[in-house]
Amino acid sequence: MGIFWDLIQQNEIQEQGEKAKNLEEKVALLEKKLEKTNETLQKTLIALENYLGKDIDGDGKMGSL
Length: 65
Fold this sequence. Notes:
65 residues, mainly alpha, 1 helix, 0% strand, rod-shaped
């Protein structure tokens, strides 16, 4: 019975390791997507400020970050 218990435990350890790896990959992907979203938002803000001729974000500058 001991050998079967060891096999079950080893399987559980492997599954947890795979879940952690998948989670790390998901977090890395989400971080990249967030970075791209922030870049797009910054470009949109610059274009909108230039188009409207107003300082929308209140940084005292128009059309720059």
